[in-house]
Design goal:
The structure is a single chain. Helix content is 0%, strand content 48%. The protein is mainly beta.
């Protein structure tokens, strides 16, 4: 599967953005999905994960309650709604697909396919 992330940009603190991750192919629904981010000078870290049918989600503590992960399997697309953005949310955001039979991995090495990243900058 090929992934294309989009929707990043510059936003003021307290604002919102919605990221999208479009997947190619007809097997999107067979992949659990996740979002990761990499802030300047830091390692890539887990943001959120979603199960194959979207019925289960998991979040990093730092974004829980502010971000919402979702997916539309009919459109082969995953989303990340980001509200109440903070300066510390500034990062390049990556979407990833996980072909394992267990979903919800928080380690990047458990994901098999990656999008190219979309940059989010939150000004304080």
């Amino acid at each position: 599967v090929q992934l294309q992330a989009s929707g990043g940009g510059l936003v003021q603190a307290g604002g919102f953005l919605r990221l999208s991750c479009a997947a190619s192919g007809r097997t999107f629904s067979s992949y659990a999905m996740g979002w990761f981010r990499q802030a300047p000078g830091k390692e890539r870290s887990f943001v959120a994960a979603i199960s194959w049918n979207g019925g289960s989600t998991k979040y990093a503590d730092s974004v829980n309650g502010r971000f919402t992960i979702s997916r539309d399997n009919a459109k082969n697309t995953m989303y990340l709604q980001m509200n109440s953005l903070k300066a510390e949310d500034t990062a390049v955001y990556y979407c990833a697909a996980d072909r394992h039979t267990v979903w919800g991995h928080t380690i990047e090495y458990d994901y098999d396919y990656w999008g190219q990243g979309t940059k989010v900058t939150v000004s304080s």
